[in-house]
Specification:
Elements: H1 2-14, H2 18-21, E1 30-33, E2 35-38, E3 47-55, E4 61-67, E5 70-77, E6 84-91, E7 94-104, E8 112-119, E9 122-129, E10 137-138, E11 143-149, E12 157-170, E13 175-183, E14 189-197, E15 201-204, E16 212-216, E17 221-227, E18 232-237, E19 243-251, E20 254-259, E21 262-265, H3 266-269, E22 270-271
Antiparallel strand pairs: 1-6, 2-3, 3-4, 4-5, 6-7, 7-8, 8-9, 10-11, 11-12, 12-13, 14-17, 14-22, 15-16, 17-18, 18-19, 19-20, 20-21
């Protein structure tokens, strides 16, 4: 039993990542710049990192990220920040690769962080996060939280959780590992936008059956308190006594709200909706 325990401890020590030896645990982000050397897939061999850009005077253009012998090119960037950020991906005693990130500021408060994973000698583009690297909070085990611009009803920002999904796929001949960064949506986000009703608005106590339980009269000042940013919106008057859920959606690519059984454009239902641009 003692011999088995020693073997387990020895195996665990062999899996301690290079990042930990440098004082960095997995998911601790550091700036690598445009070139660096390191064992980025933790196989005991060092690889070279380089970022090569082709940008105009406004930093619009393309970049190529290379790690070892593997490269990925991204085009049509807007206001690119020409530097690479990185963190080891994995657990305290086991790392399977390095997450590399390059971000652009975007055209109008629309930043994008491009994410790449280097593992087993291969560099892959695994998704994007609509936020700057400096605004990403890494919570371990591949969970990243930030604030993003919401999709529905004016301009507001909400929290967003992203996860580095890991799995495997079989192509009929061999198995391969699969990695992808995606958003893990919540059922509701705090919104908090004061507006004025232009029409009487029927609301429902339940987010599910949408049976009308109250009607907030036209002219009432209300707060768009929360939403799933897809199909539901919670509206309350200033007292909180008249409140409930309404359906939202897009009709002819325009944000709309269901009033009774009819979808109406947001600006025909609410006055003073905030738009940043």
């Amino acid at each position: 039993m003692k011999k088995l325990l020693l073997l387990v401890v020895a195996a665990a020590l062999m899996l301690v990542p290079a990042a930990a030896e440098d004082g960095l645990e997995p998911w601790q982000v550091y700036e690598a710049g445009t070139s660096a050397e390191g064992d980025f897939d933790f196989d005991g061999k060092s690889e070279a990192l380089s970022l090569v850009t082709a940008l105009d005077e406004w930093d619009d253009g393309a970049f190529t990220l290379t790690v070892g012998t593997s490269s990925v090119t991204v085009e049509n960037c807007v206001a690119l920040n020409p530097s690479v950020f990185a963190c080891a991906a994995g657990y305290t005693y086991y790392t399977y690769g390095t997450l590399f990130m390059v971000y652009e500021y975007g055209p109008s408060d629309d930043p994008i962080t491009y994410c790449f994973l280097y593992t087993d000698g291969e560099l892959s583009e695994i998704g994007t996060i609509p936020a700057l690297v400096e605004n990403l909070e890494f919570k371990g085990r591949g969970v990243i939280t930030t604030r993003v611009r919401a999709d529905m009803i004016g301009t507001w920002h909400r929290e967003a959780d992203f996860v580095l999904a890991t799995g495997s796929a079989f192509d009929g001949e061999e198995w391969s590992l699969v990695y992808r960064i995606v958003e893990a949506r919540r059922t509701s986000y705090t919104m908090g936008m004061p507006v004025t009703l232009k029409v009487a608005l029927p609301v429902s106590a339940s987010v599910y059956d949408m049976q009308v339980t109250a009607t907030i009269p036209a002219g009432e000042k209300v707060v768009l308190a929360s939403s799933d940013d897809v199909s539901r919106l919670y509206v309350t008057d200033y007292t909180g006594e008249n409140a409930g859920w309404v359906r939202i959606g897009r009709v002819d690519d325009m944000d709309s709200i269901m009033v009774g059984q009819v979808y109406m454009l947001v600006d025909d239902v609410f006055d003073d909706v905030f738009y940043a641009d």
